[in-house]
Amino acid sequence: MDAAVGRRESGVGEAMTAPSPATTPDTRPATPALRRLLVPNRGEIAVRIARACREAGVESVLAYSELDDVRYVRRYFDDAISLGNGDARETYLNVGRVIDVARRCGADALHPGYGFLSERAELAAACDDAGIIFVGPKASSIAAMGSKAESRHLMQRLGVPVVPGYDGDDQNVSALTAEAVRIGFPLIVKASAGGGGKGMKIVRSAAELQSAIESAQREAKKSFGDDRLLLERYIEEPRHIEFQIFGDGEGNVVHLFERDCSIQRRHQKVIEETPAPRYSEELRARMAAAAVAAARGVDYRSAGTVEFIVTPEGEFYFLEMNTRLQVEHPVTEEVAGVDLVRAQLAVAGGAPLPWRQDDLRQRGHAIEVRIYAEDPDDRFLPQSGAIRFYREPAGPGVRVDAGVGQGTAIGVSFDPMLAKLICSGSSRDAAIDCLGRALRDYIVLGTKTNISWLRRVVQHPAFRNGLVSTRFIADHEDSLRRSMPDEVPALAAVLSSTTQREQRATGGSAPGIGSVWDSIGEWGR
After folding, report:
1. Is 8 annotated as catalytic?
2. Which of 78, 488, 494, 517 is most exposed by smallest CB count within 10 Å?
C-alpha cells in the first residue's frame, strides 16, 4: 500500500500524484494530545514546526534570542517569549533557561528542532522532570548515541558494521599514536562527543599525527566540553548515506528510505537527495535493515537518522546516529509522501507509529540545497547584512523552507543558513532540471549567498551522472569557481544602485557590484 501524500509548504508547487483514494489508506498521524508547544530555535526549522502545529491544532510559542532578527519567523507562531539578550550559550543552549521559559509560557510540550539542544539528553531529562512532553527520543536513547565511542560499541553488539578503528579509554597521545599505527594511514581523528566537523582531522602520515591529535583535543574540549577522541580508518572517495528512521518507543520502527548527503563543505552537508543514485536494491536493503536494527537497539522514539559511510566497492559502515529531525528531512517527505514533523507531534502525544513498513513507498526523486549567507569563493566564510530584496522561486515541484524574508538582518551570532530549496520530479534528471531553473529564479540581495555556486554544482556533468562523493567539492574546485561575464546585466546594475542608496540612507555599508552579482541566481555564473 502506498503512503498518503503529505502536504507541501506554503509557496511551493503542485503535489505529486497520489494513488486513488479507493486504494490508499489514510496514514496521516492523528491529532496529537498536545496543547501548547514551545520551540526554542530559530530560522526555517522553527517555521516548519509552527506550520505543522497550526495544521494539528496545537498552539505554538517561539522562544528566541533578542540578538536574532525573528520578525519573519515570529509571524508563524501564536506567541513568542524571549530567552534573553545573550548569544547561543546564554539562550538557545541554556537548558535551565529554556525549561524556565517553557513553564512561564504554560507550554506542555517542547520541540527542540535541530542543532542547539536537540541532541542533549540533559534537555529531554529536564523536560521529563518538569512534566513537559519532549518531542523527540527518550533521554536514554539520546545518551546511548551521544558518544561516538559508545555508539560504536553498541553497533558492534547489534551486528551493525563499523569502520575499523580505536574507541578505547586510554586517551594518552602515546596510546593514540600506537593505535593509529595499528590502523594505518590515512585515518581520521574525531571528537567522540562531537558533530558538524568540529574536532575532526584527516591524518595521512605519522608525521602529522601528534599535532592533529592535540588540535582535535583542544577543539573538542572547547566545542563539547569533552576532549575524548576516537580514531577510524579514513575511506577515500566515500559516499555519505543516511536512513530516515522513525519509532514510537514501543519497539515499532520503520525506515523511510535513504538520502545521499555526500556533497559537503567543511564536513557539513550542502546538497541532499533521495533516492541515492547508482546503488543496487540489494545494498539499499542491507543498509535499511542495519538502520532499523540500530534504532530498535536503543528503543528509539520519534524521527532520527542512522548514517553510513559507503566505500566505492559497496561496503558500508556505521558512522553515527542523529537522534533528532534532520535538516534534509523535506526530501524524504516529498518522495515518501509523509509529514515527519506532524508525525513527531502525534507520537510524542502518545499515538502509535503512523505507518507500517509496507505502507511506505517512494515516488520520483527529490533534491535539497541549503541556501547560505556565505562566500564560496572565499573559503565559504559566513556573510552578514540586511536582505534588501528577496524573491523565492515557485512552480511545479518547487518547495522552499525559509527562515528569512525581505528586510531580515543577517548577523554573525548564529548559523548563516537562510533557507532550503527542495525540488522534486518523476526522475532524478527531472528533479535536477527543476532545481536548475529554481536556482535561476532565486534572488537574495544585500548579502553574498551560495546560490550561484549551487547552480554550478547541480549543472556539473559529474553531478548529473550521479558521480558524487564527499570529495566532490575538492575534486571539482576549479570548475566550480565563478567567472564574471564582461557585461553586467542592467537589472543587476539597477539593483546595485538601489541597494547602495538604501544602505547610505541608513548609515550601512553598501555592497560592491560583485556582491550583488553573486546574489542573483538568474545571471550568476
Report:
1. no
2. 494
